[in-house]
Amino acid sequence: MLLELSQDDSGSTAEARRQIEICNACRYCEGYCSVFPAMTRQKMFSDGDITHLANLCHNCRGCYYACQYTEPHEFALNLPAALAEVRQGSWERLVWPAPFSRLFHTHGVAIAGMLVAGISALFALIAALPEGAGDGFYAHLSHNAMVAVFTPAFLLPLIAVAIGLYQYWRDVGAGPITLRDIRNALASAATLRNLDGGQGQGCNFEREDRYTDLRRWFHQAVLYGFLACFAATAVATLMHYFLDWQAPYGLFTPPKLLGVPGGIALVIGTSGLVWLKMRADPKLGASRVWGGEMAFVLLLGLVAASGLALYAATGTFAVPSLLALHLGSVLALFLLLPYTKMVHGFFRIAALLAEETKRKG
Amino acid sequence: MNRLAPPRHSWDVVVVGGGNAALCASICAAEEGARVLVLEGAPKPYRGGNSRHTRNFRCKHEGPLSVLTGTYGEDEYFQDLMLVTKGKTDEDLARFTIRASQECLPWMEAHGVRFQPSLSGTLSLSRTNAFFLGGGKALVNAYYNTAEDLGVTVRYEAQVSHIAVEADRFEHVEVSFSGGPVERISARAVVLASGGFQADREWLVSAWGPAARNFLIRGTPYNRGVVLRDMLDQGCESVGDPTQCHAVAIDGRAPQYDGGIVTRLDCVPFSVVVNRDAERFYDEGEDVWPKRYAIWGRLVAGQPDQVAYAIIDSTSLDLFMPSVFRPVVGQTIEELGEKLGLDPAKLAKTIGGFNAACMPGAFTPTELDGLSTEGIDPPKTNWAQPVTEPPFYGYQLRPGVTFTYLGLKVDKTARVQTPSGVLSNVWAAGEIMAGSILGQGYLAGFGMTIGTVFGRIAGHEAARHALNDQEIADVA
Ligand SMILES: Cc1cc2nc3c(=O)[nH]c(=O)nc-3n(C[C@H](O)[C@H](O)[C@H](O)COP(=O)(O)OP(=O)(O)OC[C@H]3O[C@@H](n4cnc5c(N)ncnc54)[C@H](O)[C@@H]3O)c2cc1C
Ligand code: HEM
Ligand code: SF4
Ligand code: SF4
Question: Which ipTM was obtained for this model?
Answer without folding.
Answer: 0.94
